[in-house]
Specification:
By secondary structure, the protein is mainly alpha-helical. 81% of the residues lie in helices and 0% in strands. It contains nine helices and no strands.
């Protein structure tokens, strides 16, 4: 209990200390996580929409692969990305090893399947009713597609929230491809892991509290948008 109280006290001091290193870590954490979610959303939502709307060969096999990827262990994602970007790997010439870009790529591998899978489920649930409504109103294919997207917006927002939760809490994948380098690739989750291994529990708790506050704030804002959309 004493460590938790120290952690709370340290969290308050850290937040108001204007510590450049801490705010650099927080900024990089947000940049990496939000970048991976934004990219995953712009690619994953259209893919989920296409998979849910059209029939094509091996569709069931693809859906099973997507569902499997939704629960992909982070260390596996990190290892696969690292093998591709390492100096001797296929993409080694790009110099991506131990960079924030590599961390974004690793998080995309974890977030995009979630957004694709959740979008597909929404389309599968809503598409039949939207098609019937479109036929009743005499809508064409494009009008029906726009109507479907409008009906899906709350579900897409929920998928994005889930993706953010997956990204901002990630440790294993970003540790493998980023290396937790001070001032370069250190993010809040890897910093917490390092502090714990050093026995600095109060600071680890403090950074953890800051991470929770940030996650709560992001989710609260998105939830507020969702509630407004349902009114």
């Amino acid at each position: 209990m004493e460590e938790i109280i120290k952690g709370l006290h340290s969290a308050v001091l850290l937040i108001f200390s204007a510590d450049k290193e801490l705010y650099g870590i927080v900024g990089l954490s947000l940049a990496v996580s939000l970048s991976s979610v934004i990219i995953s959303t712009f690619i994953g939502v259209p893919l989920g929409l296409l998979i849910g709307t059209y029939k094509f060969p091996f569709k069931n096999a693809l859906i099973r692969i997507i569902y499997t990827m939704m629960s992909l262990p982070p260390v596996i994602a990190g290892l696969v990305v690292f093998l591709f970007i390492m100096r001797k790997g296929p993409l080694g010439s790009f110099g991506l090893s131990y960079t924030p870009t590599a961390m974004v790529i690793a998080q995309i591998c974890l977030v995009m399947p979630i957004i694709i899978g959740l979008t597909y489920n929404i389309v599968k649930e809503k598409a039949p009713n939207v098609k019937k409504l479109g036929l009743t109103l005499g809508a064409g294919k494009l009008d029906s597609l726009i109507l479907l997207i409008m009906e899906m917006k709350m579900g897409i927002l929920a998928a994005v929230v889930t993706g953010i939760g997956r990204a901002i809490s990630e440790v294993g994948a970003v540790m493998i491809v980023g290396g937790n380098i001070k001032g370069k690739t250190r993010v809040m989750t890897t910093y917490i892991a390092q502090l714990k291994s050093m026995g600095d529990y109060s600071t680890a708790i403090a950074v953890g509290i800051i991470l929770l506050v940030i996650a709560f704030t992001i989710n609260a804002v998105l939830y507020n948008f969702q509630q407004r959309g349902e009114i």
